[in-house]
What does this fold into?
Amino acid sequence: MRPLRILIAKPGLDGHDRGAKIIARALRDAGMEVIYTGLRQTPEMIAEAALQEDVDAVGLSILSGAHNTLLPRVVEALRARGLGDIPVFAGGIIPEEDIPFLKAHGITEVFGPGTPLETIVRFIETHTPRRAHAESSS
Amino acid sequence: MSETLSWRAPRELARWLSAIERGDAKALAKVRALYRTPSPAHVIGITGVPGSGKSTLIATLARALREAQHPVAVLSVDPSSPFTRGAILGDRIRMRDLAGDPGVFIRSLASRGAPGGLAAATADMVTALEAAGFDYVFVETVGAGQDDVAIARLAETVVVVEAPGLGDDVQAIKAGLIEIADILVVNKADLPEAQRTAQMLAAALALGFETVGHHGAAAMPAAQDVQHGWRVPVLLVSATKGEGITALIEALRQHRAWLHTSNEGLRRKRRQAEAEIYARLYAQLARYVQMHLDQAALQRWVEACAMRTAHPEEAAEALLAHVLQAIKPC
It folds into this structure.
């Protein structure tokens, strides 16, 4: 089976990418190919990268507090490009009470601080329908 | 998936590239057909040691070429972990400024264990990008070691990127990477050692060509490739500041024009075709070996070699004999 391709991006203006890098590394160590785009990405940049890289999932790390604005916009930008089937997961500083709102706006899962890395890896491995689809159609 | 490839339909293009990468039969059939239609795209290899500034250089080049409206594709290869097969593909970080421009298509690619600094699917993905109508296709190798010269069998023009202060003049005349350069770029030209590095490389190149000259008729001026008639330019560039980029684009253009007007263009195509056939032949053989390898025997040989009661070459011979036996009937 081919390796999963995952885009890890940081939307918005906060400059803390330690969490994103830890996730990127954990996914790499789980045998995934991680496209890491770096800091200060707009929703359009993230969606464009997801499109060109044809990824299986998008992971967003956000600590700025702007998650309720930015994360749904990433989902919208993906849908506008016909990429609504790509699961989007998020991590960072996101209060518990915001999670239902985010899920209602297309975020597949939210991982708070302290989530074991294996939990995230397992989640991605079981929530990436594109790979299964691509393999069966070929 | 749609049948025609175009840079104006990036989503379809991205999916074709994925299909090629995973070895999808329909996609490979398509590539074979596309390969038969030569494209006017200029395929440029960018190679150099890790940290020499390849990604940043490509970003700066692409931006300059976009000003002239050329659609540009970038294939960036990064290494896969030999242990987990995972990879972190981080070349987009340096190409951030290109995001949002529909005339630039960037694809990151993991080497997946292929030797030589590229991924196995690179050549076929380049064929697809050529067919999609890009004027320029940049192929960025993994941060190359001295031996990673696979790019030479793919690119029309190879740019080797050096950075100041990475080695002495003996490093420069060692075999390998530097020999495949059509253009040598000393990046980070704003650093104090840059001038000296450029002079050292120019001197090393001149040395190489003098040797050639002694076999030929007459001694030639320094840095003149008598054998092939192309003078490898050594260019000082600062990719972050955009300095020297115009000269580099001009050198790329000149190299291509020279390939087209001299016999070397055709000679190079033949050399590349032969190298590519060999590479695919070895890859097919490797698949047979994987398929028919006697795993139990392998384990016995591993034990024996680890205990040094047998030599690995004996093991390889015995295992190969078994593989050949297995594939003989077909």
